[in-house]
Amino acid sequence: MSSPLLLQTVWFGVALSDLWFGVVFAFLAIFLFLDGWDFGVGVVFATREDHHQREQCLAAIGPFWDGNEVWLVVFGGGLFAAFPPVYAALFSRHYLLLFGVLAALVLRGMAPEFYEQREDRRWRTWWGRAFVAGSVGAPFLLGVFAGNWLLGVEGVAPASIIVGLAVVALNVASGAAFLRLKTTGPLAEEMADDGARAMAAYLGLVTLALGLLALRPGLSGALLSPLPVALVVGSVLLGVGYVVAARRDRPYVALGASGVVTGGLVALVAVLMYPVVEPATGLTVEEAVVGSPAVELLTVGAAVLIPLVLTYFGVLYSAFSGPIDPEESY
What we know:
Layout: H1 4-8, E1 10-11, E2 14-15, H2 16-46, H3 51-61, H4 65-68, H5 70-82, H6 84-93, H7 95-115, H8 121-151, H9 158-182, H10 186-214, H11 217-223, H12 226-247, H13 251-273, E3 276-278, E4 283-284, H14 285-288, H15 292-319
Antiparallel strand pairs: 1-2, 3-4
Helix pairs in contact: 2-3, 2-5, 2-8, 2-9, 2-13, 5-6, 7-8, 8-9, 9-10, 9-13, 10-12, 12-13
């Protein structure tokens, strides 16, 4: 028989603890996709020598990056509100790692502002490098964080490093598709090749990461379960679809494919972890969820606020849809 707590936290046949486990990871996936293409544009920025193309990169993400970062706050807030013991354990155990993520995000946000303040070559070189460092550092460290969370380790595990590199490569693929949509001329024309190489790198890195995870006794059997296998196979097929779409100049399809692949990566981490939500201590979803009245209020509040946030993003992307002006700058 179900416990009284479980009875109080089941709505329409769905346990709210399980619902919020999925919602928290969905917030993470949305952030890694939306801000991921901003990070990817930052990496592409590093490969451009032409000042005009660099300005195009900055102008393409200018209206969006600060709004996209909201989803990282939503992820952290959702984790804190729904699973406070997990939030406390993760953020204290990875204190320096998460401060590194924040430092990279601050650097990524500051750098374009300072880059535009002076036309001095050395000044722009320095701040351009700072922009690239923030754009690479944030997704890499977030990938390491996700890998450590899954493995329940505190240090730097080899598999976590590979996951961090894979997230960077996936972000570059998303960023290339985004730039193909938002820019014109030589920069846009080169994005198909850049995106295809990034997606190939992502698939190779994920394969390596899965191989390392398979060596761990607690995960080797889980990786062969039907759902993880389906997620891996689906990601490979979508990765191939991304390359085909990019080659055929279908950037919307390519960007959509990269978004689903991003969701698949986060879903794979969640599926391998469930029903445990804190592998380091073995704490399960049901044990870690906040008490019944609080989780019910949280669910009602989210049902009201999340549609409003999604509406805001719909208006934002509609207002700035289409390619940027070729002469536009940040």
